[in-house]
Write a structure and sequence with these properties.
binds nicotinamide-adenine-dinucleotide, disordered N terminus, 316 residues, Rossmann fold, three-stranded mixed β-sheet, alpha/beta, N-(1-d-carboxylethyl)-l-norvaline Dehydrogenase, domain 2, six-stranded parallel β-sheet
């Protein structure tokens, strides 16, 4: 008997959790959002899209989406809204601005913001959303434009367990990993901490390999040693910043593609403000922020973040 009850409860839960939302709104169809929205269309989700950029909208309409003429119009029509916007102020404008999502959406709509922003922005939007009987989760991503295109992003989600469960099947269409990181804002916290560590380890890797070469050491020999020793990290092993060590990484393609210095600098800026607000010392994170800002000032704004190796090496 108890087995029966457990089974029927499990199947009830599965139905609830795998609930299929019929209409999804998507705001922000740029480098990332455009591909993410297309992946939803490929899985037959009905999409209503909006972007300030008309050609981005046309691109999605040609792929099968309907378009709205503003955020409010989109919000009135759908059960779920996903946003993929550049930064803090864009997210605040779209959600809390006049004629924004919060004032127009129907009750109980699930709001999923995948932009990378300050955790406090996600928390502020979530608490305002609650006043309108709306549900908000943050779900920033790791993985760049190619992962967005291939549907292999990692989503780091902050929000209630129930909202996470409801969002999971949608996020799985656009990503290969969907992780619940805690309450609202914790997805952003995970993303910022990871990227700060990545920047620091990339700078450290570039520094060590530059010194090795100045001492006369072959970079491939050093890579072989480091990657089987205690200095090993993702940047040395799978994304080495020295051209020619790994064939398919940006450093071997003139630092084209990959994760740009501008986006890394943005994320380090967010980590810096979060650390200032919480009075947390991040000496290396702060230094990494300044190094990437300097790299941008030296004309490397369109290059992958591993270009820090070239920057340290100088012109010789
Ligand atoms: P993007 O600039 O290419 O796209 C953002 C889109 O938002 C643009 O099309 C813009 O027109 C639109 N937009 C801005 N304000 C709007 C508004 N008020 N209403 C409607 N649309 C508006 O940016 P992206 O590269 O797609 O990045 C989006 C987010 O994802 C950022 O927060 C970024 O940090 C994060 N991210 C990017 C990458 C990457 O490799 N590009 C990787 C991980 C995370």
């Amino acid at each position: 008997m108890s087995v029966c009850i457990t089974r029927s409860f499990t199947s009830f839960m599965a139905t609830t959790v795998a609930r299929r939302y019929s209409k999804i709104g998507f705001v922000g169809l740029g480098n990332m959002g455009g591909h993410m929205a297309k992946n939803l269309l490929k899985k037959s989700y009905k999409l209503i899209v909006y972007d300030l950029n008309k050609s981005a909208v046309t691109n999605l309409v040609e792929a099968g989406a309907n378009s709205a003429s503003n955020v409010a119009e989109l919000s009135k029509e759908v059960e779920v809204i996903i946003s993929m916007l550049p930064s803090n102020q864009h997210v605040l404008d779209v959600y809390t601005g006049e004629n924004g999502v919060l004032s127009a959406a129907k009750k109980n709509v699930l709001l999923i913001d995948s932009s990378t922003v300050d955790p406090s922005v996600s928390q502020s939007v979530a608490s305002q959303a609650q006043k309108y009987d709306l549900r908000f989760i943050d779900s920033p991503v790791s993985g760049g434009v190619n992962a967005a295109k291939d549907g292999t992003l990692t989503f780091m989600v902050g929000g209630s367990r129930t909202d996470f469960d409801h969002a999971q099947s949608i996020l799985e269409v656009m990503g290969s990993r969907v992780v619940h990181c805690g309450d609202v804002g914790m997805g952003q916290a995970a993303k910022l901490c990871n990227n700060m560590l990545l920047a620091i380890s990339m700078i450290g890797t570039a520094e060590a390999f530059n010194l090795g070469q100045k001492l006369g050491l072959d970079a491939k020999v050093l890579a072989n040693i480091v990657n089987s020793s205690s200095g090993r990290c993702w940047s040395s092993d799978l994304y080495n910043p020295v051209p020619g060590i790994l064939p398919n990484v940006p450093s071997s393609k003139n630092y084209e593609g990959g994760f740009g210095t501008t986006l890394m600098t943005k994320d380090l800026g967010l980590a810096q403000s979060a650390a200032t607000r919480t009075q947390t010392p991040i000496p290396l994170g702060s230094l990494a922020h300044q190094i990437y800002r300097t790299i941008i000032a030296h004309g490397f704004s369109n290059k992958d973040f591993s270009v820090v190796y070239q920057f340290l090496k100088g012109k010789n």
